[in-house]
Design a protein that fits this description.
four-stranded antiparallel sheet; five-stranded antiparallel sheet; 232 residues; 30% strand; alpha+beta; Cyclic Phosphodiesterase, Chain: A
């Protein structure tokens, strides 16, 4: 099912990108962008793996031929577990009872085990480039459903699944901030990495954060963190 989703994204966007029809993100460097939310996530660089380094090497290749796009720094590469409150303009931490959100997050993590993801290949949309992730086992879905149920059963404000029901395990790596200058060279790099094996990661560290739309660390505040036991 995930492969079908990723393939459909590629198929629907490939010809558009090839012809220069990118959707440009005009807010990524805007200091007046006040969109903020609350997210459960895990960072790739916080785990013992070479995956984030391989992704960064891929991004370096792209950057050589198309330098003016937004490339996620290695330390900001992340896997979204669940968006609890989607980014809303003007939203501040003072608007919610942070303690209650943290308590539910910690309760959900108590009996959670590590989650393994195989990162293989890339896919694209007209606005960004994604690393494809394929969960090993049901751990990711189980954790997402646990968080969904606990938060939705509470009286707390959430926007879970309001935009779409998150089912993939992708990592956003590039956002388009201008039209492509060297489209043919970009397409060449994308095709070479279409099925590239970035490796497998086992995640044991999870966080609940207050974040901006792009998950910039400079705008991110950690609300809670949890270490879980690794599956044998």
């Amino acid at each position: 099912m995930l492969k079908t989703i990723y393939d459909e994204m590629w198929d629907s966007s490939y010809s558009k990108i090839k012809s220069g029809q990118c959707d440009i993100d005009k807010l990524i460097s805007d200091p007046n962008d006040t969109r903020r939310g609350v997210t459960a996530l895990t960072y790739l660089q916080n785990n013992e793996s070479k995956v984030s380094r391989k992704i960064t090497e891929f991004l370096c290749e792209l950057k050589k031929v198309e330098p003016k796009q937004y490339y996620y720094p290695e330390e900001e590469l992340h896997l979204t577990i669940l968006s609890i409150i989607s980014c809303i303009s003007g939203f501040q931490l003072a608007d919610i009872d942070t303690f209650s959100y943290v308590q539910i997050f910690k309760q959900c993590m108590q009996d959670t085990e590590s989650i393994s993801i195989k990162f293989e290949g890339i896919t694209i949309s007209t606005s960004c480039i994604l690393i494809q992730g394929f969960p090993i086992g049901e751990g990711l879905n189980e954790l997402r459903n646990k968080l969904r149920n606990r938060y939705q059963e509470s009286s707390l404000h959430t926007t879970i699944d309001s935009r779409y029901r998150l089912s993939t395990a992708h990592v956003t790596a590039v956002r388009f901030t201008s039209q492509l200058i060297n489209r043919d060279k970009v397409i060449d790099v994308l095709n070479r990495y279409k099925f590239y094996d970035f490796g497998t990661m086992t995640f044991t560290e999870f966080q609940l954060v207050f974040n901006n739309w792009y998950q910039n660390l400079s705008e991110t505040k950690q609300l809670a963190s949890s270490s879980v036991k690794q599956c044998v």
